[in-house]
Design a protein that fits this description.
The structure holds three protein chains of three kinds.
Chain A lengths: L2 H14 L6 H27 L14 H25 L9 H21 L26 H34 L2 H10 L7 H34 L11 H28 L7 H32 L2 H12 L3 H13 L7 H4 L2 H28 L14 H24 L5 H6 L3
Chain B lengths: L21 H14 L3 H4 L14 H12 L5 E5 L10 H4 L5 E6 L11 E4 L8 E6 L2 E5 L12 H10 L4 H9 L6 H4 L1 E3 L11 H10 L10 E5 L14 H4 L13 E3 L1 H7 L5 E6 L6 E6 L7 E5 L20 E3 L2 E8 L44 E6 L8 H9 L7 H6 L7 E5 L7 E5 L8 H5 L5 E3 L5 E3 L9 H5 L6 E2 L26 E2 L5 H13 L12 H5 L5 E5 L6 H6 L4 E2 L11 E4 L5
Parallel strand pairs in B: 1-2, 2-3, 7-11, 8-10, 14-23
Antiparallel strand pairs in B: 4-5, 5-6, 7-12, 9-10, 9-13, 14-21, 15-16, 17-18, 19-20, 22-23
Chain C lengths: L1 E6 L2 H13 L7 E4 L5 H7 L6 H26 L12 H27 L5 H5 L8 E6 L5
Antiparallel strand pairs in C: 1-3, 2-3
Helix pairs in contact in C: 1-2, 3-4
The chains are: A mainly alpha, B alpha/beta, C mainly alpha.
Chain lengths: 432, 600, 145
């Protein structure tokens, strides 16, 4: 077919996804919306009664909320990797994934950003975490990793949103051409009157490149900062220098898993098989395998350091992780993160979308468990045996966490109907 | 060891004498003390406690018999809140013609009384006491009675002779006493000295009639007084359940203890609900695995006895502290005990004196951080582990001084008690048991301060790690980072129903939900002393500030003071050869020094 | 009068553009719209490279300065000791400065993009839809001005 026809079909196919939604869509949206509402309701209940409504106790002061915070920030990183880092490496295959990946990033960061609020004892004073001028000379403690989090996650959200929006501008111009009524006006405004003139493309290109260049160190720094919430502490299991690269690799690993989880069904349901090919998925699967190997290496290094160190606290803690109260979670994590991804060394499995989808679910579970194990075993079993104690979640904990998944999927579903899920402009550019 | 001691003392009591061969043990202990030649030196028979006015368990049992024989007409029961070990007496009370109860709070004993007359708390009424022979003390009320009560003395003196007021009755009796008792509040007469002498013939006779040592039974049940409620008499006070028993760290609930090896051998595990087989008495208690107990010895606190009757030694009149042959079998059910300690084995971790790591020299600090600087004061605490017996009075004092909330059994099962100071028992391998009072160490290089995002905790110039309740947003990172886990979080709003709200100390603010709290070295007392010193244009002197724990410790194990003052007691103790700090090698520079002879 | 040429593919479009420019058509009279960026057009029209990078540099530098300024000023405004760390804790402040560099740099770059590209283009928002799926060249004759 000629390029012109190809372009027309591309536009039609992608924009068709944004037409009136099916019943299945409404059901899915209602379900995830209901989960989100439940999560918010339970959060309200927790604000009224106190953090004691969750299962946290002495010594485990952080549990499921912080697990979810790190999990969602990690998911977000993969989107930035695909859109920004792969752009700088000129990887062509990213163009079919990057819109969904960027949307996933923005939504995941929004979801993640709720959790530092949810876990606060006095959330009504949350604004004290930001350095605003006041008469009493009260400022925040910039030595605290939590303040670094505030800056890192806010920066990440802002830059990801700008990057997402920038990528959308030419596509919104395409969308406005085909839309009608109110939607048309919305797209017109959002597209800023984009015309596609050479000088506009000139500025645009520079902008995109600089945003990608900014986003790349951001990927590394933000999850390093999040990992330093733990690495800057003194307790065994947290106090280790490997956390920053380990967490960044883990973030990309978990995020790639989530991209597969989202895109495999989306591609099928929206009929975009022509544009998102199995070759693209194979490349994503290779990223998954590679980051899984890094994460496995980090596990080995942690254990080796602990046993080689001879430090009674480190060895006791790692024995506890492997054989203690939470051992089933730890073994499940090893299975999901280290062992199962090894099957991707086989090419047929890499190219089998059903297998990739199932594997990606396990990867998501495994990476959630990894954060759970790190946070809770370190707090439950540190220096002084008198203080050892176990955490058990309550309905409030679990309900709010499920609510966050509801929020993520609800927003992603809304995205698929409101915005083009594929970067039309880039696919056209690479079509030849 | 006894021979080389300067002033040896042999004490025999508890389980040693409360068993069938117990009188023989007591005689031997007395003989041993006599042969060491230190009786006059170490034991003073003149200033004994006035126990001659008290009845024995045998007397109580006899009362029960007389009640059942309907020999008692009017029976006054005054402030008897527990009849543990003598369960037969309580039901016999309503056999009396007219049992009258005089009490400040209701317990099951009083349910049998025909009429209950409420009496005020001891602090609300006039009275007197003779704690030691020859020492008479006048008791003056601290405030007016809160409720409609009549003092016991009023009631009894009215019944006896028509005089209404307790105060006038009392003063009539006291007025003839010489000396300035109305200024001091007490009157002391030095009782006649008693020259102890050994009476060989009587000793031999007593020895011969003392029962021979019983055959060792396969199972011994040791009945120990409860540290918190003795025999259950103060069970109604919630604080006494909130504070755990120091050896087992069980807070709420009665329990029976056995060593872990014995439990394993018998196929029992912790929290199993056990039933005792002693004929008619069916006692059901959850099991606690207690390190440090010898094999096949079961231990039960007196306030958990329920209907179990303790045999009485006819010759001494005392109830046995040891029973043989009591069997325990599992009911198949479980009842979870709130055990506040995670584990009592800290072998090799540098927490207890026998296992402490080598402390680095103070002059060779390997750190990139600037050295600590303090202005005028560096407040520090020295805790003498050789004196501390784990009585937990310091814990109670801390609760009361600092308005610490009582969270209750459900929260304890969750692991959420709020104690700022706690007694941590350690039964390490190859080391005698240690009872370690643990509190916020006020570290010089505190890990908690760095990580608070809002400066709710920071280091002041006097070495204190201060906690600003108004600023805390409750991220809980500070406690996560504390290697001692000294901090406590307010998981809920804890309130006290009236009249317990009157217990609040107005000098200490109450913390709302969502806020972290911890030991402050009683900063309110430090402030008060500093204000006074400032008025007098001087620095605070050693001994002017005493935190609540140091004030209350009956053994004098806790010393507080200024480390920068070379003449202070705490300075001397901190630099002594007996001093060490917990987890010192982490570089936290704690301000709490522990003293023990075992430190080399 | 405006003449329009629409092309489906890049090659034919470039051929025509080259032809027009070779014929001496002044570039100002040409309106060109492409569905994606075509590098050759920049060369043909001798477009200057975008000065966006200068704004990026300014933004990043401002962010760096703001980061250091904020952290150092606030810690000296009320010096509080935490954990024995120095009052001006450079290793910790590097992180905040780094993040602010990126944040302010990105925001300023985006702002510069809007400014340099004269966005939003109100004429297009309120009026027609400019872009096509294909390559468009319009030539405006002088009589239409």
């Amino acid at each position: 077919m000629s390029l012109g026809t190809y372009y027309q079909n591309l536009e039609t196919d992608v924009l068709a996804a944004m037409r009136k939604p099916s019943t299945l869509y409404w059901v899915a949206l209602a379900f995830s919306g209901a989960l989100f509402a439940m999560g918010m309701g339970l959060w309200g209940y927790q604000i009224m009664t106190g953090i004691g409504a969750s299962g946290k106790m002495h010594p485990v002061g952080w549990a499921l909320y912080i697990t979810n915070f790190v999990f969602w920030v990690g998911i977000a990183h993969s989107g930035t990797l695909i859109s920004a880092v792969l752009f700088l490496f000129r990887a062509r295959f990213r163009s079919s994934f990057n819109r969904s990946a960027e949307a996933m990033t923005v939504i995941a960061v929004m979801t993640a950003g709720l959790f530092p609020l949810i876990h606060l004892g006095r959330v009504w004073f949350f604004y004290w975490l930001m350095p605003y001028p006041n008469q009493r000379h009260l400022w925040v403690n910039f030595r605290s990793p939590l303040v670094w989090d505030v800056f890192a996650v806010s920066t990440y959200f802002t830059v990801s949103l700008i990057f997402f929006y920038t990528g959308l501008i030419p596509d919104l111009a395409v969308a406005r051409r085909h839309a009608t009524g109110l939607k048309r006006w919305v797209y017109r405004v959002l597209s800023l009157g984009w015309e596609g003139k050479p000088n506009q493309w000139n500025h645009y290109n520079q902008l995109y490149m600089f945003l990608a260049a900014f986003a790349t160190p951001l990927v590394i720094s933000v999850h390093s900062v999040v990992s330093w919430d733990f690495a800057m502490s003194v307790i065994p299991g947290w106090h280790t220098t490997i956390f920053a690269p380990y967490f960044v690799a883990g973030a990309i690993f978990s995020g790639t898993g989530m991209v597969i989880t989202l895109v495999v069904p989306m591609r099928k349901i929206l009929g975009l098989e022509k544009y998102i090919t199995i070759d693209h998925f194979e490349s994503i699967a290779k990223i998954l395998l590679f980051t899984s190997l890094i994460v496995s290496y980090a596990y080995i290094v942690e254990f080796a350091l602990a046993y080689y160190s001879g430090n009674v606290f480190e060895t006791a803690h790692f024995s506890y992780r492997l054989l203690g109260d939470y051992r089933y979670f730890y073994w499940m994590m090893l299975l999901c993160n280290s062992l199962l991804p090894l099957t991707l060394f086989f090419k047929p499995l890499r190219r089998n979308l059903k297998y990739l989808f199932i594997l990606s679910i396990f990867v998501n579970i495994g990476m959630w468990l990894e954060r759970f194990v790190i946070i809770i075993t370190a707090l439950a079993h540190d220096y002084d045996p008198y203080n050892w104690g176990n955490f058990a979640p309550t309905l409030v904990d679990v309900g709010i966490d499920i609510g966050s998944f509801g929020m993520f999927f609800m927003l992603f579903l809304i995205f698929t109907k409101m915005l083009p899920v594929l970067s039309i402009t880039e696919v056209k550019e690479h079509a030849e | 060891m006894l021979k080389s001691a300067r002033r040896p003392l042999v004490l025999a009591g508890g389980a040693a004498t409360g068993q069938p061969g117990g009188l023989a043990v007591a005689l031997l202990a007395g003989l041993l003390q006599w042969t060491l030649g230190a009786v006059g030196d170490a034991v003073d028979f003149a200033s004994a406690y006035s126990f001659d006015r008290l009845g024995t368990c045998a007397d109580l049992a006899r009362l029960g018999q007389r009640l059942r024989a309907k020999e008692i007409g009017v029976l006054f029961i005054s402030r008897i809140h527990s009849l543990a070990g003598q369960p037969g007496v309580a039901p016999a009370i309503d056999a009396a013609a007219f049992p009258v109860g005089l009490t400040d709070f209701l317990t099951p004993v009083y349910q049998r009384c025909r009429i209950i007359l409420p009496v005020p708390h001891a602090l609300e009424a006039w009275g007197d006491a003779e704690p030691r022979r020859g020492l008479l003390s006048l008791i003056r009320p601290v405030f007016r009675p809160f409720h409609d009560t009549r003092p016991e003395l009023d009631i009894l003196s009215t019944l006896a002779g028509g005089q209404a007021a307790a105060k006038s009755f009392l003063f009539d009796r006291w007025r003839p006493l010489p000396g300035g008792w109305w200024q001091n509040g007490f009157h002391q007469t030095r009782p006649a000295g008693v020259t102890p002498a050994l009476r060989p013939a009587e000793t031999l006779a007593a020895w011969q009639s003392a029962s021979p040592a019983a055959q060792p039974a396969p199972l011994w049940l040791v009945v120990a007084p409860s540290l918190r409620t003795y025999d259950g008499r103060s069970r109604a006070i919630p604080l006494l359940h909130e504070i755990p028993d120091p050896l087992s760290t069980v807070s709420y609930g009665p329990f029976v203890s056995v060593s872990p090896e014995t439990a394993r051998r018998r196929g029992l595990s912790a929290n199993d609900l056990l039933r005792s087989g002693n004929g008619a008495n069916r006692l059901e208690l959850p099991l606690h695995l207690q390190a440090g107990l010898p094999p096949d010895v079961w231990q039960i606190p007196v306030d958990a006895l329920g209907d179990l009757e303790l045999p009485i030694d006819a010759r001494t009149g005392e109830a046995a502290a040891v029973m043989a042959g009591l069997t325990w079998e599992s009911t198949g059910l479980h009842r979870k005990l709130p055990v506040l300690s995670g584990s009592t084995d800290a072998t090799g971790r540098g927490i207890t004196p026998g296992h402490r790591k080598e402390a680095h020299h103070h002059h060779e600090r390997h750190t990139l951080l600037p050295p600590l600087e303090h202005k005028h004061y560096r407040w520090a605490l020295a805790i003498d582990l050789d004196r501390c017996n784990g009585c937990s009075a310091c814990v109670a004092a801390c609760y009361l001084e600092n308005n610490i909330a009582i969270t209750g059994p459900a929260e304890h099962l969750h692991g959420r008690e709020l104690s700022w100071l706690r007694i941590q028992p350690y039964f390490n391998r190859d080391e005698p048991p240690v009872l370690l009072p643990m509190l916020c160490q006020q570290c010089g290089y505190a890990p908690c301060e760095t990580v608070c995002p809002v400066y709710a905790t920071y280091h002041n110039e006097e070495g204190l790690n201060v906690q600003v309740y108004n600023r805390c947003v409750g991220t809980r990172y500070c406690n996560n980072n504390c290697p001692y886990k000294a901090r406590r979080f307010n998981w809920f709003d804890y309130d006290r129903p009236a009249p317990l709200n009157l217990l609040f100390n107005p000098e200490v603010s109450r913390r709302p939900k969502g806020v972290m709290e911890k030991c402050t070295f009683c900063i309110q007392r430090i402030r008060a002393a500093k204000d006074l010193a400032k008025d007098q244009a001087r620095l605070v002197r050693d001994g002017e500030v005493t935190p609540a724990c140091a004030q209350t410790c009956p053994a004098g194990a806790i010393t507080f003071g200024n480390l920068l003052d070379p003449g202070s007691r705490v300075s001397a103790l901190a630099h002594s050869g007996r001093a060490y700090r917990v987890l010192e090698e982490l570089g936290t520079e704690p301000a709490v020094y522990y003293l023990s002879k075992r430190v080399k | 009068m405006t003449r329009e040429w629409l092309y489906h593919d890049k090659e034919s479009f470039l051929l025509k553009l080259k032809e027009l420019l070779a014929a001496g058509t002044p570039p100002e009279r040409l309106t060109i719209m492409t569905p994606f960026h075509v590098h050759e057009v920049d060369h043909l029209l001798h477009l200057k490279p975008s000065p966006l990078k200068i704004f990026t540099l300014i933004g990043a530098a401002a962010g760096l300065a703001a980061g250091w300024g904020l952290t150092i000023y606030t810690s000296l405004d009320w010096p509080l000791r935490t954990g024995g760390k120095p009052i001006v804790a450079i290793p910790a402040y590097v992180i905040v400065a780094f993040e602010l560099t990126i944040l302010i740099g990105a925001i300023v770059t985006f702002g510069a993009f809007l400014f340099l590209g004269r966005f939003p283009v109100l004429k297009v928002i309120t009026g027609g839809d400019a872009t096509e799926a294909q390559f468009l060249i319009q030539e405006h004759r002088e009589e239409d001005e």
